[in-house]
């Protein structure tokens, strides 16, 4: 699954663009897993299994948060959109302003500036 730039097209995604695409695809997978676990939780009677699946579902939600925060660190436009969230007070927003000079990049993920 690709978005924006076709793997077969003449334009290739930069390493950063490809990383962002992969993280977005990972988010889709996490949301699908959450929905599937919730469906199962809602349709079984065994409390032990419900508890287990609820725990696993909540771990998937943690993954969503982790990936979302990573996207906000490496995708300046996404970070800006999170900061423009008008549905909550500024101090309650998922993403707070950051100093771009210390923002994570693909380069410094691998020890390069």
TrEMBL record:
The keyword Iron applies. Gene3D superfamilies: 6.10.140.1960. The keyword Metal-binding applies. One of its GO terms (cellular component) is encapsulin nanocompartment. Keywords: Encapsulin nanocompartment, Iron, Iron storage, Metal-binding. It comes from the Bacteria. InterPro entries: EncFtn-like (IPR054581), Ferritin-like_SF (IPR009078). GO terms for molecular function: metal ion binding. It is found in: Encapsulin nanocompartment. GO terms for biological process: intracellular iron ion homeostasis. This is Rubrerythrin.
